[in-house]
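Postdoc handover notes: sequence design on the structure in folder B. Input tokens:
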């Protein structure tokens, strides 16, 4: 009986994990890991991607090891975050596309990225970034963000998400509650954003409030927000941020995924095994662990242990597992695998991507020239003539 209970628990826990790994093909070790974990999803990076056919085959082989439909995930924003650059060519950044001021191109950005994801076998893109382009984070976020104005960020993100949807790819808003005023890179260090909840609500949280029904997933950042939660508590392990604010106050109903639990920011505050437990305890659904097999095993084992030993935590796990499986059923069309693309299809995608890059470049140049002429005209126009007093 105990063995049966442990087996059932282990199967459930897998649905709380999205995992990454090294290598470009299926191996006995990777096959064993996936069959044991039965994860909700996998994530690939540039280190895993060599050609379109190889990537498609690797994701197919991952699915063969797992009984439920996989979230096949990638980080692809364009610009600095472009995992397909060496396979299909460079994709314009969010900032480059936003600079055109053309909403049709905002949507086309998402559509082309979505079509490329689909061709390689991906059904989830961890984009767009909803962080605001404040000066404080310029050196960290750079061209990944579009505007300090939250409404302009919403305008770009709404159309980008619609473009992804048209290609049957699920998008993800990140990095909640917002890294716009984070001065440190969360990959390496814990950044503390000293901003009141009132100000965050009006600025950084506005995109999440506005797009809450249009975001299939929301990714939680590892930044700390001392005016809201304890000084060294990342949002990713905070019940206040995940449940009280995102779930209850904002009313978000879809899936919540952590940022990579291997990042220095969260590991400076706790261990990977404890981070996974606290993320789930706080209301999160999917623990993202992008590289190390030992970290994946530690998180998995700790989640199993806590589920078997703590009835309240087990209820929290059941809630997320039900949400994940229900979401997968609702999004069955997006999760369905497509046939491997032909070389002709790949050539068309490569050409289309290049043409889009040129379209964005010329549109942005044209807008700058128009803006420059307006500024010149304003500087050189004679002052308005004063009417005589009557």
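Designed sequence:
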């Amino acid at each position: 009986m105990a063995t049966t209970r442990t087996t059932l628990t282990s199967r459930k826990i897998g649905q709380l994990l999205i995992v990454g790994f090294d290598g470009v093909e299926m191996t006995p070790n990777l096959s064993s890991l996936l069959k044991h974990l039965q994860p909700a999803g996998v994530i690939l990076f540039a280190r895993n991607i060599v050609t379109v056919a190889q990537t498609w085959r690797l994701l197919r082989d991952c699915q063969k090891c797992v009984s439920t439909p996989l979230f096949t995930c990638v980080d692809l924003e364009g610009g600095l975050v472009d995992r397909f650059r060496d396979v299909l060519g460079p994709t314009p950044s969010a900032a480059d596309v936003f600079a055109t001021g053309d909403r049709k191109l905002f949507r086309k950005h998402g559509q082309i990225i979505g079509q490329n994801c689909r061709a390689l076998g991906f059904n989830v893109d961890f984009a767009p970034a909803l962080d605001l382009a404040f000066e404080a984070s310029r050196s960290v976020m750079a061209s990944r963000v579009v505007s300090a104005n939250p409404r302009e960020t919403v305008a770009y993100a709404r159309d980008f998400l619609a473009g992804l949807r048209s290609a049957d790819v699920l998008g993800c808003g990140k990095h909640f509650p917002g890294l716009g005023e984070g001065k440190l890179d969360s990959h390496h260090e814990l950044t503390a954003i000293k901003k009141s909840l009132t100000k965050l609500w009006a600025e950084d949280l506005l995109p999440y409030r506005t797009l809450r029904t249009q975001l299939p997933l929301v990714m939680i950042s590892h930044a700390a927000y001392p005016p809201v939660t304890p000084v060294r508590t990342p949002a990713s392990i905070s019940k206040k941020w995940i449940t009280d604010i995102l779930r209850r106050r904002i009313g978000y109903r879809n899936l919540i995924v952590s940022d990579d639990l291997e990042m220095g920011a969260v590991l400076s505050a706790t261990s990977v095994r404890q981070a996974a437990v606290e993320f789930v305890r706080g209301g999160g659904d999917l623990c993202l662990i992008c590289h190390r097999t030992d970290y994946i095993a530690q998180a998995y084992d700790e989640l199993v242990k806590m589920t078997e030993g703590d009835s309240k935590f087990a209820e929290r796990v059941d809630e997320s597992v039900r949400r994940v499986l229900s979401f997968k059923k609702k999004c069955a069309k997006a999760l369905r695998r497509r046939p491997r693309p032909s070389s002709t299809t790949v050539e068309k995608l490569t050409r289309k991507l290049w043409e889009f890059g040129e379209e964005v470049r010329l549109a942005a140049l044209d807008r700058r020239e128009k803006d420059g002429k307006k500024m010149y005209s304003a500087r050189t126009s004679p002052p308005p003539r004063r009417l005589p007093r009557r």
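Context for whoever picks this up: The mean pLDDT is 92. Don't rerun without checking with the PI first.
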